[in-house]
Specification:
Number of helices: 11
CATH architecture of the largest domain: 3-Layer(aba) Sandwich
Low-confidence stretches: none
CATH topology of the largest domain: Rossmann fold
Shape: globular
Helix content: 25-40%
Bound molecules: 5-S-methyl-1-O-phosphono-5-thio-D-ribulose
Distance between the termini: 42 Å
Order of helices and strands: EEEHHHHHEHEHEHEEEHEEHEEEEEH
Oligomer: single chain
Length: about 350
């Protein structure tokens, strides 16, 4: 059995290139490849080789550096023009997870303070590294806050993978489980398989069992049965974008979990860093939902499971309204009502 520290990291920066853990090959193969250019990183994000809101933000931050290091001009004005284009290219890779745009825009903004092109390039690289390092501490704080809502012996249901490999370490929704394990608690998890691309089965079931946390896998349509028949203490999920009023976009299928949790009066928690909160949007209706390739639904791996040419729906995320969310757990604290007021205070460092 491994410990959390031995679970492969999603990203490794070696100063020259970004090593990306290819999450499409898990759980059967642990395979890293080198991303040497912005296009390599963008492609890895689109193909879900790196996925999970915080991890794609971090990958994009390094991707921006890999792009800007190729810029040849000495003119700062021309440099900033090209940086803007590269930033837009990265941000368009996946539209729903706000962490991607958050990380890229942060680096673009900081690079505006440079007085030379080489200084701007250095700032982008150093800030990408800082974001990467800070993410682990943030996730740990989220986990510690989330643990205050659980107890030794708790059973937690989760969806998709908001775990260590979706961040720099610990994860968001899975952070309390990893921390509970570190404390010696007997905690257990239920993981939905998460159709269409099985992040729950392939990633969460793997990650938790790697860390010795008992995990039971169920298909997405077994959640009603589970909540009706077993004692589940909490549902905890991650988030891709949280609007000012607390509405939350997360992996497709999260909404039905929230509805069922409410019906069975099981607390429904969203765990996410402040970088997932988008105060520029008031409500969830404004969130752009990524629509993905039809073959994710018509095929499992290379095996076709639906008739040729069938119409398909494949939204990657859905939006859970704030009324179904018991609390949102961040590194700053836990909020269960008056989301907007609290988010604003946090944004102002209060
Ligand atoms: O399409 P994915 O696998 O990137 O979706 C991931 C999720 O929905 C996660 O719950 C979310 O990004 C939080 S990851 C800490």
């Amino acid at each position: 059995m491994t410990t959390l520290q031995q679970i492969p990291e999603s990203l490794q920066w070696n100063g020259e290139s970004l090593k990306i853990l290819d999450q499409t090959k898990l759980p059967t193969e642990i395979y890293y490849f080198d991303a040497n250019s912005l296009q390599d990183v963008r492609e890895a994000i689109v193909k879900l080789q790196v996925r999970g809101a915080p991890a794609i933000g971090l990958a994009a931050a390094y991707g921006l550096y890999l792009g800007v290091r190729e810029i040849e001009t000495e003119s700062l004005e021309e440099f900033h023009r090209q940086v803007r284009q590269l930033a837009n290219e990265l941000i368009s890779a996946r539209p729903t997870a706000v962490n991607l745009a958050w990380a890229v825009e942060k680096l673009v903004q900081l690079s505006n303070e440079a007085t030379t092109v080489s200084e701007a390039k250095l700032i982008i690289m150093e800030e990408a590294i800082k974001l990467h390092l800070a993410d682990e501490a943030t996730c740990k704080e989220i986990g510690e806050n989330a643990l205050t809502l659980l107890h030794d012996g708790a059973a937690v249901l989760t969806h998709c993978n908001a775990g260590s490999i979706a961040t720099s370490r610990y994860g968001t929704a899975l952070a309390p489980l990893h921390l509970a394990k570190e404390k010696g608690w007997e905690i257990s998890a239920y993981a939905t398989e998460t159709r269409p691309v099985f992040q729950g089965a392939r990633l969460t079931a793997w990650e938790l069992s790697q860390n010795g946390i008992p995990v039971t896998l169920l298909t997405d349509n077994m959640v009603g049965y589970l909540l009706q028949n077993k004692k589940i203490d909490a549902v905890i999920v991650g988030a891709d974008r949280i609007t000012a009023n607390g509405d939350t976009a997360n992996k497709i299928g999260t909404l039905q979990l929230a509805i069922l949790a409410n019906f069975y009066q099981v607390p429904f928690y969203v765990a996410a860093p402040l970088s997932t909160i988008d105060l520029s949007i008031e409500t969830g209706i404004e969130i752009i939902i990524e629509q993905r390739d039809r073959t994710e639904v018509t095929h499992i791996g290379n095996v076709q499971i639906a008739p040729d040419g069938i119409d398909v729906l494949n939204p990657a995320f859905d939006v859970t309204p704030n009324s179904l969310i018991t609390a949102i757990i961040t590194e700053k604290g836990i909020v269960s009502s008056d989301f907007k007021e609290t988010f604003k205070r946090w944004e102002h460092g209060e």
